[in-house]
TrEMBL record:
One example of a Gene Ontology biological process annotation: fucose metabolic process
Top-rank lineage group of the source organism: Eukaryota
Cellular location(s): Membrane
GO cellular component terms, A-Z: chloroplast; membrane
Pathway stated in the Swiss-Prot or TrEMBL entry: Glycan metabolism
Membrane topology: Single-pass type II membrane protein
Membrane spanning stretches: 26-44
UniProt keyword annotations, A-Z: Carbohydrate metabolism, Fucose metabolism, Glycoprotein, Glycosyltransferase, Membrane, Signal-anchor, Transferase, Transmembrane, Transmembrane helix
Coiled coil: none
Name of the protein in question: O-fucosyltransferase family protein
MF (Gene Ontology): glycosyltransferase activity
Stated family: Belongs to the glycosyltransferase GT106 family.
Organism: Phaseolus vulgaris
Family matches, as CDD domains: O-FucT_plant (cd11299)
Length: 501
């Protein structure tokens, strides 16, 4: 009995130990799991804070594997872009910029601000875009441009961040200086007058950026950096690029097409004071609008004088006659790269009669495809920009910011034909033809002769000493980026002549 009792006590003791052992194992496993998950969470958090390319690469590959649909056999798969390693430099401070104006004015300003940041060894904050101008577009930088590509593709030149560190935001009154740099300034101005400001103010905020860097007289590496930003780093968002390419595919199905940048829009007419063809009520409406914008300095403008000086955009009626004189026939597909034409279809009637195949993005795309871009003038302008750069022929009726930047892109793409209208001479010819003193054949020949050397051929920029506003614009003709060495002199000196096709 004692032996049996002893065995019974041992079994009870063992049964008591087993639950305690299991509990201990479970507790150890639970603690280990908590520690492991905590470490993993910390690791992910640190990787996000440092923007580690390693972890982002793993994440993107996982995302790609899970979500990317299978590729069609005939679809090209483009490898992800490779970027040069970041440039190692000691930053002299943070540069914030507020880009004023429309899409293309802001685009040129962004290129300038990158070049200035490189020159002064600054850290550039992703630019803020104008939301208060006539267009009142609420778009941010990342709504129009591929912000990740912008930052990564320039990392070997300039450090770019999405926002100023919080330590400066909390002391904004002491650390941030707001100012507009002087227009058309050169390297010396920024080195001698702007750079010292960062010693006292670690953040400088340029609240105006239009035309703040000179066209000429800058080091070659800065000029080439401006081009690199413009032609490579500033990519539109994938949504805009895809829709723009769809427009190009549709337009190209029927052969060559013309992109007509008809700048006959309300803001341009009000700003310039040009009212030819407008009713008295429309002329008054435009005048009231001009007075409503304090930044538009000229108020009392004589429309006819302005027109004779070549400072007015061509009217739709004038554009119809010029296109016919240049040799385009009524079967030519014409993409209307423009916003709402002032006067609506009434003012487009003569142009449509001469060229029935006028097309707009609103007629080529379904409403739901354009819906997300409506009421965002810069995003709509981006679509027109994409199509205008790709068109077989580009014709702007006013030499504004879009006309200049599209011209520069087309030069960069192999000097594609851009017919740059001499409006002062055209007004003279138009008036003579319309009053009966210049027959059609003579008028058409004269229009062609005037523009024989105005079709985007290779040429040097015109430099006007002490008159930067009057010289040729860098972004319209960045010839330093279009050719190299002695070949550049040969190319720019060539007497090329383009024929209308």
């Amino acid at each position: 009995m004692e032996g049996v009792q002893g065995r019974s006590d041992k079994l009870q003791g063992a049964s008591a130990v087993i639950p305690r052992s299991r509990l201990r194992v479970w507790f150890i496993r639970a603690c280990s799991s908590i520690v492991l998950w905590t470490c993993l969470f910390q690791l992910v958090t640190v990787s996000e804070l440092w923007r580690s390319h390693f972890f982002l690469g793993i994440t993107s590959r996982i995302h790609h594997t899970i979500q990317r649909p299978p590729q069609a056999h005939n679809e090209l798969v483009h490898p992800p872009p490779t970027f040069l390693p970041p440039r190692n430099y000691t930053s002299n401070g943070f540069l914030r910029v507020y880009c004023n104006g429309g899409l293309n004015q802001m685009r040129a300003a962004i290129c300038d601000m990158v070049a200035i940041s490189r020159l002064l060894n600054l850290t550039l904050v992703v630019p803020e875009l104008d939301k208060k101008s006539f267009w009142a577009d609420p778009s941010n930088f990342e709504d129009i441009f591929d912000v990740r590509h912008f930052i990564d593709s320039l990392q070997d030149e300039v450090r770019i961040v999405k926002r100023v560190p919080k330590r400066f935001s909390r002391k904004s009154e002491q650390t941030i200086l707001k100012m507009p740099p002087i227009s058309w300034s050169n390297e010396k101005y920024y080195m001698e007058q702007i750079l010292p400001l960062f010693g006292k103010h670690k953040v400088v905020h340029f609240n105006k950026t239009d035309a703040r860097l000179a066209n000429n007289g800058l080091p070659l590496d800065l000029q080439k950096l401006r081009c690199r930003v413009n032609f490579q780093a500033l990519k539109f968002t994938p949504e805009l690029e895809n829709l723009g390419q769809k427009l190009i595919r549709i337009l190209s199905k029927n052969g060559p097409f013309v992109a007509l940048h008809l700048r006959y829009e309300m803001d341009m007419l009000a700003f310039s004071g040009c009212t030819l063809g407008c009713t008295n009520e429309e002329a008054e409406e435009l005048k009231r609008m001009r007075y409503a914008f304090p930044s538009w300095r000229e108020k009392e403008i004589v429309s006819e004088e302005r027109r004779l000086q070549g400072l007015c955009p061509l009217t739709p009626e004038e554009a119809a006659l010029i296109l016919q004189a240049l040799g385009f026939d009524r079967e030519t597909p014409i993409y209307l790269a423009a916003g709402e034409i002032y006067g609506g279809e009434r003012r487009l009637a003569q142009l449509r009669a001469a060229f029935p195949r006028i097309i707009k993005k609103e007629t080529l795309l379904a409403n739901d495809e354009l819906q997300q871009f409506r009421n965002h003038s810069s995003q709509m302008a981006a679509l027109d920009f994409i199509v205008s750069v790709a068109s077989n022929t580009f014709v702007p009726t006013y030499y504004g910011n879009m006309a200049k930047l599209v011209e520069g892109h087309r030069r960069y793409s192999g000097f594609k034909k851009s017919i740059l209208l001499d409006r002062k001479k055209l007004v003279e010819l138009l008036d003579m033809h319309q009053n009966g003193t210049l027959p059609w054949n003579e008028f058409a020949n004269a229009v062609r002769n005037v523009h024989e050397r105005r079709m985007g051929q290779p040429t040097r920029r015109r430099v006007e000493a002490d008159k930067p506003k009057e010289e040729d614009y860098f972004y319209a003709n960045p010839y330093e980026c279009l050719c190299e060495g002695t070949k550049c002199d040969d190319l720019l000196g060539a007497l090329n002549s383009s024929q209308i096709q």
